[in-house]
Structures are given as C-alpha cells and as structure tokens.
Design a protein that fits this description.
Elements: H1 2-7, E1 8-10, E2 24-25, E3 33-34, E4 43-48, E5 56-66, E6 69-72, E7 85-89, E8 102-111, E9 126-130, E10 157-162, E11 177-184, H2 186-189, E12 203-206, E13 222-227, E14 230-241, E15 252-256, H3 261-267
Parallel strand pairs: 2-5
Antiparallel strand pairs: 1-14, 3-11, 4-5, 4-7, 5-6, 6-9, 7-8, 8-9, 10-11, 10-13, 11-12, 12-15, 13-14, 14-15
Length: about 270
C-alpha cells in the first residue's frame, strides 16, 4: 500500500492553488494543442469555492450526460458539501469570459458506492446533479455514451481533452486542450512493466508513449472516441504516474464508462 500511495498520483487534485479569471482560479493535456472552439461541447470545468470567499478554483473536468447531470471522477470530490461547487458548461478560455459559458451550481453529489479512495481499486466515478438544467445556447451538448460493455481494440485512437498541466514544469493552459491518444489493450496495460494489477478490466488505458498524456487538472474529464458513427465518452480520467505525467509504459488510466452504465442510469 505504501508503494501504491507513493507511485500513483491523483491526476487533478493539485489544481486549486493558482489564480484565474471571472472569479475562478486554475492550476494541458501534455503533448496536446488548443482544441477548436465549440468542438467538445460536453466538456465542463468543475470548480470549487473551497474557502467560501466567492473565488472559484478549477479542480477537474467532467462530462454533461443529461441536462441536469454531469459525470466526473470520484477523487475530484474533495468535500460532499455540494454548495461549494459549480459547473461551467460552454467553457473554452478559462482566463476570459467568452459569452458562451453557463455557470451552474451543484445540488447533489453521488459517488459510486464502490469507491474507497484508493485509485487502484477503481470505481472512480461520480455524478453531480445540477441546480438548474444546462440549455442549448449553441455551445453545449449532451454526451453520447458507449454501448454497455463496449471496449476498443489496442491502438484505437481517441482524444483526451482538458485544462490540466501541459508539462512537468507546471505550465498551465488558458484554452481547452485536446490530444489524439491511442488505447492500450488491458492485456498490455496489465503487464508488470506497465500498470500491472492496478489496471482493472473496468478501466481504459490510453497513451504510454512518453509524449501524450493527461495530467493534473484533467481528472474527471472525458476520453472521447468515435465509435458506431458518433463521438462517445468512453472514459473518465482517473490516474497516471506521479511526477512527470507522460511516462513510457505508464499510460493515463480512465474509468471505463461502458462498465458503469447500469449504475449511471440508476442515479439519473
């Protein structure tokens, strides 16, 4: 257990300590680029007013799964006090007001009952019930989800998106980042020189080439894959290696959405 704690880092909980715009503070996807505006419409920024002073901090990403609910990672929930959080839908540039944003409070937090706080045990998923519905202003959309149990083959190209760190030195983005990232089959990711027993069947691994990865601030955000004729959110950013995020044979690990759809719809 000591080794696990030392080796695995929360991919997104270290972001609440650097200032930022329209009453928000922020902490890129490594190897990524600026995403085109209005492309990943289901991506949100999960923010928290941890000190009850009206100043919000970007904690994590998330995905709009219906007009009143957002999916994120369980480890992004630092407090069960829903009133301290808000969701920003239609966000693009965290440092300026674009006119596309919808700032919405959180009414209820539902964390998966199998979440223990240990990333290696999985079940790193939570649903946030919003205080009011997101509306179609042309900049938001409800995500399509995969078929229950659906998996992707080794090397299948997906996209990771988020406002997480862009490099080991802590460079932060203002604009939403995207990067093409190949899926790593469970039979590979679970090998001892990869993630070994930490890679469970209900997780998706992607990356591990030492170039592209998620990093702090990307947690809870989507793994976007074009399957069955549509972009679908197949994963929720969960964990990666401590320190330098883009390490060879240590891909970003996502909660596999297709393994949790019964639970997701039971919450909705």
């Amino acid at each position: 257990m000591i080794g696990l704690v030392a080796f695995v880092s929360f991919v997104g909980l270290i972001c609440a300590e650097q200032p930022f715009n329209h009453n928000v503070h922020n902490e890129r996807v490594i190897g990524g680029n600026n995403a085109p505006p209005n492309k990943w419409k289901w991506q949100i920024s999960l923010q928290q007013d941890a000190y009850n002073d009206g100043s919000y901090y970007h904690l994590c990403g998330g995905t709009i799964i219906d007009s009143l609910n957002v999916m994120t990672a369980a480890h992004c929930i630092l407090s069960m006090d829903a009133s301290t959080y808000r969701v920003v839908a239609g966000e693009y540039n965290l440092y300026q007001y674009d006119g596309s944003e919808q700032f919405i409070g959180v009414d209820r937090i539902t964390v998966h009952p199998g979440w223990t706080g240990d990333l290696g045990n999985g079940n790193d998923i939570a649903i946030l019930r919003l205080s009011q519905p997101v509306y179609d202003n042309g900049y938001v959309a409800i995500a399509e989800l995969p078929y229950p149990g659906e998996t992707m083959p080794d090397g299948f190209t997906c996209y990771i998106t988020g406002w997480g760190l862009m490099d080991y030195y802590g460079t932060v983005p203002d604009i939403l980042q995207e990067a093409a990232i190949p899926v790593v089959a469970h039979s590979v990711c679970s090998q001892p020189n990869w993630w070994g027993s930490l890679a469970k069947q209900n997780m998706v691994c992607a990356g591990g080439d030492g170039v592209i990865s998620g990093c702090q601030g990307d947690s809870g955000g989507p793994l976007n894959c074009h399957t069955n004729g549509a972009w679908r959110v197949h994963g929720v950013v969960s964990y990666g290696p401590q320190g330098m995020c883009n390490q060879v044979t240590k891909p970003t690990v996502f909660t596999r959405v297709s393994s949790f759809e019964d639970w997701i719809f039971s919450v909705l």
